[in-house]
Specification:
Chain lengths: 375, 375, 375, 375
């Protein structure tokens, strides 16, 4: 290509690179390439942007669109063939890494009564949020947990885990959330199939909830050294009750209404090192203000209907819909009901951003904190 | 006294001091005293004991003995005169520091409906455990908490606090627990009376419970930097329920049955830096094994009846009785009922022992782990 | 393309996805694409690899190759045009993100006496390792540090910083190391030019070394809350002396000889949250064993000559050469001298791997721990 | 005694106890005593003081007074008889616990060339500061350290340790500092004589200094999980050099001149959990301002001469003298030379005060921060 350009990122700003191609320079650049090197000034403005510009785009996935496809997968492939029957969310800007947004993977998995996935473990961390059906369960390192709609469960990195639906249950669909793209990017992805394809349940069912799910109380005996929450399962009912109680004594967040983080009860920190999760309640008629921050978020509508505005575009949502907010994009939420609350479950990589001092946040200053809808 | 002896602690063991008085040495010792000095070998075996020997003695305080005296105080002194109408527990071995055991103070306080103590703060940390009555409340730095029987509440060091009983309540009696003797020993005791003798309630009543009392959930907004639990109040009902749930999935501790620590939900650690608290359930017919550890404990019987054996002596207890276990004394507990559980509330200085690497523990090896009752 | 395939990643292993394309399935996949979704089983084996396979390749950059190009840049571009005159290392597998390896950027920067770069700050973290010349200095948030060959200095994220060479110095070349690719990948890159293009030196020169560079001692007065090492500069002379002293009392690491991490003296942890650095000494004739671990490393030869074997390929190095080891590739090092030690400076992203529980390590089991050279 | 009084602590201040004895009340109090109980209002003002009033008194121990007695002990008792030949400092207010001040023990120990104390361990933590002689050494868990004048060494709780002087050394005297009184008060004192009365040196001599005594560097291999500093020995020469360097870039503390804490290089925290140590330099002619804080301090004059004012009393000191400052007493220091610096070594229980949130500090407000000398 005779017209190759090297000076495409130049900026005419003091302190920024601003070098125009000349024949001598171009020859110099070509010479450098032989030594696996280049001139920084040609890429400096590209790799040192003034502020983040996400490769992801905001997307809303309607449950009514996806549900039938998810259910059809049951007829199309067996669990043995597919490993897991999952339809994953594929952000147009992140198809190279199969991410729903940023470095987060998400998919909708279906399972029929009596089915179970084979047990495996991986260096990725995972979570599930139950969308419909009864009888679902997850086993983590011998701890079996039964799951109902809107329950949230962890399958952390390094743990043997498997999912299933009991014989007396109904067809179940849940959302999976994983940091697979991130762990792959970090070149630290390991995967192992359990030698028996299935693990024994070696603890009483739901023992983690009985041991660790008591507010302000901790067993004297049970030690826990693993770097994630021992609670593993967070049920919907006490979560909704917690938000309702908390709502009575707080004005809430201007950006998120009544919002709580799921936590590791032993540290007060996030449930896992690479992914956190939250549940928020938008009060009847609530319209929050816009802010933006680094880090990516995937939301699922746990209750109610409304809309969110993300970088100037409106996304209408109803129960079970999923949408994402890419890094450093303004977002605000609106409860569409004037009489009932709406609840949004979300998971995100904010624990990574905070652990590495990369969390930045900014409120929208103009227009009383509300975005102009441009799309 | 012409026959003063200096060699009273000598031991005939290799590595221990074993110096007998001689006229020359005695003169040498007397000379040293002029310079505020002494010979270590005369006290070495005293100040470096082979193992701890507590100055405290085990004591059981029967509620039926003390209750009438506590109630009589109402007729004998006014709150204004007395500051607080409290009968304190005075261990025979610790009367010089007014301690119930070790460095822990405890007393029984009474208050009539409509009464309130004046607001104050101190560098000591305090807790209360409600014994009887309705309408009790505590205010801590503007947070008001309502309290019922077996509820446990913190008034940490440095916090303005006051106690009262509402007009529509009944006469209330509660146990106070403080580290006053310890803080005095550390020569760090400060005390201040609130300038208005009373503080304003600036938060919604019981807000701390709504904000921090949700298992596995934490408000995103509320930051807390103070070195003690933000939960402040721990109610009896969810505590008893937690023990009951936990009992289903654990064999329990051989020494304590079903035992849980009250915790700071933001750290998983003790409720305050100098005092921890626990609740334990002895299952019907349970007889635990004996162990001993450093640190002092004060128990109150929250439910049921039974007995404990402390250093070979049996102490029978029933609901509301209080007893103490001094440092490094063997102790085991017996539920007197074969059909109902018994519950023991306790508070202790184990957080101090652990923070300073002074916690040691030992199981009784002989007699299948059970003490021979010698008294 | 009429022959598009979806089943290219299938594996015939229990627990892995193994679904072959059928016309019905292909139609199903195409339908899903309309909804920004896909079937997991088509990508599962790709995104859940059995173990990491780095996109980077091992590279050695010879200083004798690059030095003349670095020096020529002085004639080709002005500091004002270029921002900084830097030749960056461009790994063949990572040219899309301008990385030397993994998510790490590195470049060689040159500066003439009397020159100074404009002051700026960014959310990326940076470090410099001086290669040649005298009179170099760096200013970080008002702290000026003078630098000589093999000195190592931090310019952490969020700090205003600038580099220069004093009038009485000589032409200086140093290696820059930054986490720019990582911070961009995390979509958290911010950049700011100092309003005055230069900052005032507001502390005594080299004050950080005097305050924090004393072994086992810490000023009582100086508080430091920032999330990186206050020491900022690590000089060559005491570092080499430290390795020499340490060598006297240790057998060293089988994989790295005598190796020490640069640390934050207030935490004992890495110098910055996203990048760590180490210096290691290979004793005369030393040939280490091979191991591999997650995380990427960039080495610079600070002293001596020898070679390293990386994934079966031999790379010969001499003083000032730079080479990289991608994630999960076996590597071992050989000192080429039988009489003198050799020293390797390195920086890496191991603090990220450790903070997020993604650090895995494995020794080479075969051939007495030594690789077979295949290239 | 017919005239026993109970109301001796009453105060006529709102919020304080102010109850006068009456025959009825006295009978009530006597009844309570039968049940190991008492009325709080009789002791409340005693046990809840407005501010700390130390039981210790300030004392200065002149080395010229004590040295001959220390040396004479060699003729008076054998090491086998005495265990250790130590003259301990016995504060007039703390003779019941053999403390030099507060809960800190201190003594001067002498040893002749070729002598060694028997190896032992205890739950108390200890430190030594060498005063005179050559050839002293300490062994801690197999690590042998050689010691010269003004060197400071740790023998932490739980570690086997022994002291000696080599055959080719001279008579050595050092100061011992221990938390024995505190550990006894906490009823956690354990003591063990080494089964062989002596332990093997299993590491290279002074290995800890070579491994951990390098500023800003940490061996990658050596892990350390013990709750105290791995450095163990802190030599005088680098300490003095550190103070001199630090003095160039700081104004110093108004209360302490140029002061640094000895630290654990792995945490930046104190050398042991219960005792910290510091070294400070008073510049020529320096006269610091007065402040007071909770916690007790023992000083030894490492260099120079001058005086300190403690609670209004002047104490003149010269090299090797020892003096103490009790909790919450104002103190200020004066270097007696206008040409040379003076250095004070000190150890204290401030780590305890800080860990338990009991550290309080106050500057003297009056008289430009200087005390009026009243004694």
């Amino acid at each position: 290509m005779t017209t190759e350009r090297y000076d495409i990122y130049k900026e005419d700003v003091a302190g920024r690179a601003n070098v125009s191609d000349t024949p001598e320079l171009v020859q110099y650049y070509k010479d450098l390439e032989k030594f696996e090197a280049g001139a920084l000034w040609n890429v400096a403005n590209k790799i040192e942007p003034w502020e983040p510009k996400s490769q992801s785009v905001p997307v809303l996935w309607r449950y009514q669109d996806l549900r039938e496809y998810v259910l059809r997968s049951v007829d199309l492939v067996t669990p043995e063939q597919a490993g897991r029957r999952v339809i994953y969310l594929n952000n147009p800007g992140r198809q190279d890494v199969s991410a729903a947004v940023g470095w987060l993977y998400s998919g909708l998995q279906v399972m029929h009564p009596g089915e179970a996935a084979s047990a495996h473990s991986h260096s990725s961390s995972a979570l599930r949020f139950i969308m419909e059906g009864s009888g679902a369960y997850t086993v983590v390192d011998g701890h079996k947990m039964t799951l109902g709609a809107n329950d949230f469960v962890l399958t952390p990195n390094g743990a043997w885990h498997e999912h299933g639906v009991s014989e007396d249950g109904t067809t179940c669909i849940w959302q999976d959330g994983l940091d697979i793209p991130f762990v792959n990017a970090m070149e630290a992805g390991f995967y192992a199939v359990h030698p028996d394809l299935s693990q024994a349940v070696t603890f009483p069912v739901n023992d983690a909830s009985h041991i660790w799910g008591n507010p302000g109380l901790k067993p004297v005996l049970h030690d826990w050294q693993k770097p994630y929450s021992p609670l593993l399962k967070y049920e919907w009912e006490p979560t909704y009750e917690a938000l309702s109680r908390y709502a009575k004594v707080t004005d809430g967040s201007p950006y998120d209404g009544i919002i709580m983080d799921y936590t590791n009860p032993l540290t007060g920190g996030p449930v896992m090192a690479t992914m956190g999760a939250s549940m928020q309640m938008l009060r009847p008629g609530e319209h929050t203000k816009a802010h933006r921050h680094t880090g990516s978020i995937i939301y699922q509508v746990a209750k109610g209907h409304g809309y969110s505005i993300i970088n100037g575009k409106r996304f209408d949502w109803r129960e079970r819909d999923i949408f994402c907010v890419p890094s450093w994009m303004f977002h605000e939420h609106v409860n569409g009901s004037s009489s009932d609350d709406a609840c949004l479950f979300s998971f995100h990589d904010l624990p990574v951003m905070r652990a590495l001092n990369l969390y930045y946040e900014e409120a929208l200053a103009d227009n009383d904190g509300h975005q102009i809808i441009t799309e």
